[in-house]
Amino acid sequence: MINVFSSDAEMDAPVVDKLNLGQKLVIITLDVLLLVELCIAMYFANLAQDAFTPTFVKTFFSLLLPTVLTGLFFLRRLKTKTAIVAL
Questions:
Q1: 77 to each of 25, 37, 65, 71, how far by Cα in Å?
Q2: Share of residues in the chain with pLDDT > 70 (%)
């Protein structure tokens, strides 16, 4: 059967490395932090009923951006180094 949704380049692409334990812990921590940030943003937006949406957006995205950037930094830093073997 021919797979019409993938090209030859995708079939020949190298296999992506799996996440190591440190990276998995970073992902779990990020998930929990993002849920906490969502709750905080909803709480502050609820305090300002007349400006609910702007308050939510300002609060959530001001918390979200540093969290995601820090998470990406740690994911890259904890990436397993692979040795290149010459044939």
A1: 13, 24, 18, 10
A2: 75
Q: Using alpha carbons, list the distances in angstroms from residue 68 to 20, 51, 65.
A: 19, 26, 5
Q: Taking the complete model, does pTM exceed 0.85, yes or no?
A: no
Please answer whether residues 81 and 22 qualify as being in contact, where contact means their C-beta atoms are separated by less than 8 angstroms.
no
Note the pLDDT of residue 3.
Answer: 64
Angle, in degrees to the nearest 10, between helices 52-77 and 21-47: 170
Helix (H) and strand (E) counts in the chain: 3, 0
Q: Which domain holds residue 36?
A: 18-77
Please tell me the total count of domains within the chain: 1
Q: Give phi and psi for 48, each to the nearest 5.
A: -110, 80
The residue ranges of DSSP E strands in 15-64, in sequence order, are: none
